[in-house]
């Protein structure tokens, strides 16, 4: 399956659940309950189908398409309100930020746990003899392609 098809599938599944959110709004369910409904029924589809390992492989258009799902949900829950304000008031991070945080959390788990199954994918650890301000934790190999530079492991290693 290609990424565009994958993103379309996420949107299709989410659109079905957004319909239920609309029905609950018409039934005059409280906004706090609608937010809980969004967080438990719709957002898991977005996060499950966009695992942290693949986050950096998505294009900006694909991330914007995923973000539109949350925009639609917020628009249903809080009609005639600004998206950014409602996200801030209700402590809802943007999807892109949330996926980044999940990705960073996974990377930190890999680094901290010596028995983690993905630990063997990390580059060799750097043992410098000088006490520098910014210590390198890993030796980065020379990367020839952007695809490799944008991969999950190397993107996070380069951020350290």
Any low-confidence stretches, pLDDT <50, length ≥5? none
What kind of sheet is the major sheet? none
Quick one: overall form? elongated
**SSE topology string:** HHHHHHH
| Count of separate DSSP helical elements | 7
Give the oligomer, counting copies of the same chain as homo and different chains as hetero. single chain
Helix content: 55-70%
- The average pLDDT is 82
Structural category? mainly alpha
Q: Which strand-content bin applies to the residues?
A: under 5%
Query: What is the terminal-to-terminal distance?
Result: 32 Å
Overall radius of gyration: 19 Å
- Number of DSSP strand runs: 0
Explain what this protein looks like in three dimensions:
With 160 residues, the chain is mainly α. The protein has helices spanning 3-26, 31-49, 60-77, 83-89, 95-112, 146-149, 152-159. The longest helix has 24 residues, at 3-26. It is elongated.
Task: Provide a brief overview of the structure.
The chain has 7 helices and no strands. It is an all-alpha fold and 160 residues long.
Brief descriptors of the model:
160 residues; mainly alpha; 7 helices; elongated
Fold blueprint:
Layout: H1 3-26, H2 31-49, H3 60-77, H4 83-89, H5 95-112, H6 146-149, H7 152-159
Helix pairs in contact: 1-2, 1-3, 2-3
């Amino acid at each position: 399956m290609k990424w565009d098809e994958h993103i379309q599938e996420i949107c299709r599944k989410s659109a079905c659940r957004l319909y239920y959110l609309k029905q609950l709004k018409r039934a005059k369910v409280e906004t706090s309950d609608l937010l809980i409904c969004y967080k438990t029924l719709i957002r898991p589809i977005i996060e499950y189908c966009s695992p942290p390992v693949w986050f950096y492989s998505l294009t900006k258009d694909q991330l914007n398409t995923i973000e539109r799902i949350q925009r639609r949900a917020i628009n249903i829950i809080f009609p005639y309100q600004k998206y950014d304000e409602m996200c801030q008031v209700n402590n809802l991070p943007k999807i892109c930020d949330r996926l980044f945080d999940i990705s960073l959390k996974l990377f930190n788990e890999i680094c901290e746990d010596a028995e983690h199954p993905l630990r063997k994918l990390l580059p060799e650890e750097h043992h410098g003899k000088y006490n520098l301000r910014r210590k390198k934790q890993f030796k980065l190999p020379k990367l020839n392609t952007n695809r490799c530079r944008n991969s999950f492991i190397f993107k996070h290693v380069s951020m350290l």
